[in-house]
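User: structure tokens for AraC family transcriptional regulator, please.
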Amino acid sequence: MHAACSITCARGIDPVALYPELRVRQLEAARGHEEIPLAEWIDMFDRAIAALGEPDLPLKAGASLHLRHLGVLGHVLMNCATLGEVAAQLARYIRLLGQIGQPRVERVGDRVHLLWIWPHATPPSGAVAQFMLAARATFMRWLADRPDLRFDAHLHFAAPPDTRAFERVFGGELRFGQPHSKMVFPAYYLELPVASADEDLRQQVEARAQSLLRILEGEPPLLTELKGVLARNLANGRVSLAEAAAALGTSTRTLQRHLGALGRPFQSVLDEVRLHAAENLLRDASLSLTQIAFLLGYTEQSTFHNAFRRWTGQAPGAWRRQQLGRG
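Assistant: Done. Predicted tokens:
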């Protein structure tokens, strides 16, 4: 599940009170394998920060992240030889985590500056910077089995009223209001060996990461954005061509023209999004078929039943039993 959802749940707040139920269910079922559009990712943190009154919530979320939450990328990092290789592989495969910025390593004398570069025209997100740098500090300590590693943190936003969490996470000097967000540490850290490295396993997981990266890079940005809009709005039923075009800031005619050029009619994209969401939800045995139909935006279970059979050749109940090993 997304880190903001996990932390609100840990604080005793039902994530469904803050986020659309379908998205919570999708993220729970996907277990970290579904890309979240950047705007939605930031919005989820903003809602959690407002609900909990914790401006340093993204920092705490990043510090609590485990490599297993990164899916195949986490396995790639765990099987690198050194922390220097970890930095290189993270830069190479960061796209697997979404459009959340690019890490860059710069050597300045005997120090390393690990920058976090914001790739968008909008102002850089303080929430994403907190999350990414805290996760990097945590991962480096865990991978090297060196809890004593200390990092100076330069952050592009103003200092919060209470900086104690930042002191605990980074352990070194804190500088707020800087031109860029980055960590600074001794260059020899990059030479530290990764305690969990396994050369044979590394080749397997890197091949998988390369395959996933090719898939992501091969999909046009318009399709990625459209799928994100449709996935977020399935439960509330706002998935018509006109509503999707408005959400993307374009006209229905322009959207249809672009999709036509890609050979992807709007209905086929909507069906793909619904099928992906349906498969994730069907793997959750606690949900009835009626609930799943509602979460997918259908008013009748029979409509969902007929659509799923058209997509897969199976009834949703039979597909679920097969996936869950129940005949």
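User: Anything notable?

Assistant: The chain has 16 helices and five strands.
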